[in-house]
Fold HIT family protein.
Amino acid sequence: MSSVRLDARLAQDSYPVAELPLCQLRLMDDARFPWLLLIPRRPDVSEVFDLDEADRRQLWHEASEVGRMLKALTQADKINVANLGNVVAQLHVHVVARVRDDDAWPGPVWGHGQARPYDLNELAGMRDHLLARLDGLNLQP
């Protein structure tokens, strides 16, 4: 398990799903959007360029594979992949499934309306779906 301390806001706003080769995969607690986070297990990293070359390649590999999996799972029209860090400095990459009739389309999901937390059944179902599909991904470097 990770020895890198997870930012308190990321821990509060998301649920753990799996440990990938580089990143912790977490599910944002907003059932309006299938929204995952990839958080590299590296200390004191706030920018992608703070990672060494091998970790940068692995981060984008994991983001691509997770995005492909999320698109297939949700039948999304578009997968948004973004790294902002204006509020939480710890490096994390958002992977968000978007559909043309979601609450925020075509704008960004950040700051749009009020989050709708998952109920326990929705959360368990989403985690189960994600975990079942993660096994089929090529996440190794």
Notes: The first strand starts at residue 14 and ends at 19. Strands lie at 14-19, 23-28, 35-40, 78-82, 93-98. Helices lie at 8-13, 53-74, 120-134. The two ends are 18 Å apart (CA to CA).
